[in-house]
Amino acid sequence: MEEPIVRKRKKQPTYDEFPDFGKLPPQALEEEEAVLGALMIESNAFSQISEILRTPDYFYKVTHRKIFQAIRTLAAEGKPIDMLTVKDQLIKDKNLDDVGGMYAIAALTEKVATAAHIEEHAKIIAQKYLARRMILISNEIQTNAFDASKDVDELIQEAEGKIFDISQTNHKKDVVSIAEIIPAAIKRIEEASKNTGFTTGIESGFYKLDELTSGWQRSDLIIMAARPAMGKTAFVLTMAKNMA
Q: Which one-letter DSSP state was computed for residue 229?
């Protein structure tokens, strides 16, 4: 008689599956707990961190990711966020047992009394996440650099692109009211009307470029991109000399 097949449940990873570099990966578990707890005791706190913690991957601990995903789902659907609604969403996601049940959810709410410091805690979590990404990307860049079949110019471009992606991820867009924008806009318009030339910003010293851009503005992020050995450094140094 054949023995019945017993299917064992696959063990869920407890933490981010991070390569072993001989050191503990950057993480902020206490801040992760504080943020999740604050989100469940103050329902409107999610709007304060939604632009800082953009995906569950920002959390190092896998159970924290699942709880945060449940909270994001509730926020996206316009539903209230508290222990009970998060529990119900985790049940729908079939993740309640994985995170430790209702006891684990309740324990998180006991970590903090208010959401007063939630934004600061979220920024710390985001910094640790970006640090982990940088470690992974630098390791990937190193591995590719050892591959003799890879084109070096392409590797450089790929590396620059990945680092740029991290810098973009680190950029938080702040919401500004129109009442704050109008005075500054009016001032710039007045300055432009008084300017007899065609530039309103800092002139680069290259006439055609300044004509196109009206000069470099304070709000501008200037990115100089080109293939290697095309004169980027000389061009930028010349502009710096002209603007000095």
A: T
- pTM flag (> 0.70): no
Size (the chain), residues:
244
Q: Is the pLDDT of residue 101 over 90?
A: yes
Q: What percent of the chain has pLDDT over 90?
A: 43
144: domain CATH number is: 1.10.860.10
Structural domain boundaries enclosing 141: 11-175
Long-range contacts, 178-182 (Cβ 8 Å, 24+): none
Q: What is the DSSP string of 78-89?
A: T---SHHHHHHH
Give the per-residue pLDDT at 10. Answer: 44
Nearest to 126 by CA among 68, 81, 83, 87: 68
- Do 109 and 42 sit in the same domain of this protein? yes
